[in-house]
Write a structure and sequence with these properties.
372 residues, mainly alpha, two-stranded antiparallel ribbon, 13 helices
Length: 372
């Protein structure tokens, strides 16, 4: 008989932080690549007066360049779609090494399909990593089957158990929460516009592309068909405030941030300008306190834009659509004010002593031990 054993000498808190930063560091190239390619597509499309280049109808456009820009947007979206599987997979990898990679990635992909956002992907990564570690520790095999553990028992068992937990424990409650929030926003569409804008801004800033964000943005965009523009205005302002605000903070005072996040700050600023809120995710993962600041900044900017009469008629948040907004100076001022709040808050929260370096050597691979 034999058993797998895997573990870590790190404290639980340090191990969790290192696992998150491992996932983030592997995720960033996918996010940056996708965001930049989508930005190129949307900026190019704006030159042709197109504000929805992602719409499938552009695939049949008579202009070959428009067709190409549509495909570029799809390429960028494809890269971004790998974000959740990658972050979950490498969180699991940091905990359980190579056998945890497949369970984590599949769990992250399931989190994406279930609409749980990056919070679900985080959960999937940790669930997969610790399940694989437990399997490694307690699975006993005869000596003749020892080699089957890391390449068969752990990936297969870990993937199946992770998916069961994600599908039957995490997915349904978050889906119900999403539906409830959508209905709530629709019920508020006729009430005080400034309060509604602040609520939408807070939701968008909360989880940066996650289920709460998606519920607010999707509902706001749906209301465009009814010519209700205030929710969309609030959502499009709020989408870009966190990545711009946090990115500017890293440019103003880089030493207050962990070295691993300084380059992410540059990417965050760019992503904010082209309308991708996910650029701020690494900072929220590294220090969840920033989520509160994101909520305040996004809510303030959204309420200010709507309250002062700016109207964004299109589902575009990037800088290439700002000049098409009614009362665009107010719109840009609102973005600037919300971003400034987050910049100041980020500099107060990140104080240069929270550097989290991923130590791959401290995430040992599960080892097969042959017993008597």
């Amino acid at each position: 008989m034999g058993q797998f054993s895997g573990g870590s000498k790190l404290g639980v808190g340090t191990e969790i932080k290192n696992a998150i930063m491992t996932g983030v560091s592997w995720m960033l190239p996918f996010v940056i690549s996708g965001a930049v390619i989508m930005g190129i597509s949307r900026i190019g499309a704006s030159l042709y007066g197109i504000d929805n280049i992602w719409d499938a109808s552009h695939l049949e456009a008579t202009n070959v360049m428009v067709q190409m820009l549509h495909k570029f947007d799809g390429f960028g979206g494809l890269a971004l779609s790998l974000m959740l599987p990658i972050v979950a997979g490498y969180i699991s990898f940091a905990i359980a090494n190579k056998p945890g990679l497949a369970p984590g990635m599949v769990g992250g992909l399931l989190a994406s399909n279930l609409g749980t956002g990056f919070l679900g992907a985080l959960a999937a990564g940790f669930i997969a990593g610790y399940i694989v570690r437990l399997l490694a520790k307690y699975t006993k095999l005869p000596k003749s089957l020892a080699s089957a553990g890391p390449i068969f028992i752990l990936p297969v068992g870990g993937t199946l158990l992770t998916c069961i937990i994600m599908a039957f424990v995490i997915g349904a409650p978050l889906a119900a929460l999403n539906h409830g929030m959508e209905q709530w926003l629709l019920s508020m569409s006729g009430s005080n516009k400034v309060i509604l804008a602040a609520v939408i801004g807070a939701m968008v800033g909360f989880d940066l592309g996650g289920p709460v964000n998606k519920a607010a943005v999707t509902t706001a965009m749906a209301l465009l068909a009814s010519e209700i523009y205030e929710p969309n205005t609030a959502a499009q302002v709020a989408i870009i405030i966190p990545p711009i605000g946090i990115g500017l903070a890293t440019l103003i005072w880089a030493k207050r941030f962990p070295e691993s996040l300084r380059e992410a700050g540059k990417a965050s600023t760019l992503m904010g300008l082209i309308g991708v809120s996910e650029g701020a995710i690494p900072f929220a993962l590294a220090n969840p306190k920033i989520i509160i600041i994101n909520i305040i900044g996004a809510a303030t900017g959204a309420a200010m834009a709507v309250g002062l009469g700016a109207i964004n008629h299109a589902p575009i948040s990037g800088f290439y659509g700002w000049l098409a907004v009614d009362k665009w100076p107010i719109y840009i001022l609102s973005v600037a004010v919300g971003s400034a709040i987050i910049t100041i808050g980020s500099l107060l929260i990140f104080r240069g002593n929270e550097t989290i370096e991923t130590k791959k050597s401290e995430a040992p691979a599960p080892k097969f031990k042959v017993g008597r």
